[in-house]
Design a protein that fits this description.
Layout (H helix, E strand, L loop, with lengths): L3 E9 L5 H11 L3 E13 L2 E7 L2 H12 L6 E4 L5 H13 L5 E3 L17 H8 L5 E2 L3 H8 L7 H13 L4 E4 L8 E8 L4 E7 L9 H14 L4 H17 L17 H6 L4
Parallel strand pairs: 1-2, 1-4, 4-5, 5-6
Antiparallel strand pairs: 2-3, 7-8, 8-9
Helix pairs in contact: 1-7, 2-3, 3-4, 5-6, 7-8
């Protein structure tokens, strides 16, 4: 049977993050991708110039259309900019008894532009953390959710990941890409006591747009194919590491370019 993953997220008109990055990732990893748009952004590699929110009722209508017909094996949730949209998504997840939900609590674009209104943070925590199998915050996002300083080092990351579990998350992948040191370290912490670190050498590049979207959607793709959570995370980390390393092979825009979602296919293609 065909593995199917659904992304509920915002559109990036520049193609590097959001819905576009998620669908590219699903396709690159051999999973059929469906989508629910929560917002439209006027965006390129230089920044976000405008955001148009999709009405909550229409977000829910998209969810109902997809989930009533397609046998969705995993769901990735990305940009949900407003409280009413978050509540609509939560209600849709309950109505369709959704499982294998990966929540990427997107708050700020790579350009620094805000993607989540301040009053939506508490709603995101209350409504979606308990409904997700995994949340994938980066260090600044975790700090904002916990109203604390950005974690520095493994012990601080461990403490903040546990605090997110205490807020209602079932599993946390705290991403260390914004940290220091020669390696990027991500921590998987679960309620049953599993602690696992995933590391990769840092690669110096300005072309890292869409990294977080890509990682969370790659994890969802692994779950859609039936992988256990640790294996899905390990595979996603490897995929994103290669996508970042290959990013400089693309020449997209004048700002923060995207990671190379199709690095494996394009490197072996005969098409010039």
């Amino acid at each position: 049977m065909t593995a199917i993953a659904l992304t509920i997220a915002g559109s990036d008109s520049g193609g590097g993050a959001g819905i576009q990055a998620d669908l590219k990732t699903f396709s690159a990893l051999g999973v059929y991708g469906a989508s629910v748009l929560s917002a439209l952004t006027a965006q390129n590699t230089l920044g976000v110039s405008a955001i148009h929110d999709v009405p909550p009722a229409f977000v829910r209508a998209q969810m109902d259309a997809v989930l009533s017909d397609l046998k969705v094996n995993a769901i990735k949730i990305g940009m949900l900019s407003r409280p009413d949209v978050i509540c609509a998504v939560a209600e849709g997840l309950d109505a369709h008894e959704a499982s294998n939900v990966v929540l990427d609590p997107v708050m700020v674009a790579a350009s620094g532009d805000p993607l989540l209104v301040p009053e939506a943070v508490s709603v995101l925590i209350a409504e979606l953390l308990p409904r997700a199998q995994l949340i994938t915050p980066n260090l600044p996002e975790a700090a904002r959710m916990l109203n604390t300083e950005i974690a520095q080092g493994r012990e601080a990351m461990r403490t903040q990941a546990q605090a997110l579990l205490d807020l209602g998350a079932r599993s946390v992948l705290l991403k260390g890409g914004h940290g220091e040191g020669p390696e990027s370290e991500d921590l998987l912490l679960t309620r049953d006591g599993r602690e696992q670190w995933f590391t990769a050498p840092r690669h110096a590049t300005r072309n890292s747009h869409g990294t977080g979207c890509t990682l969370s959607s790659a994890i969802a793709a692994g779950l859609a194919k039936g992988l256990p959570l640790p294996d899905a995370v390990a595979g996603a980390k490897l995929y994103v590491t290669h996508a970042i390393r290959a990013a400089d092979n693309l020449k997209i825009g004048e700002g923060h370019g995207p990671v190379h979602h199709f690095h494996a296919l394009w490197e072996t293609s005969d098409v010039n």
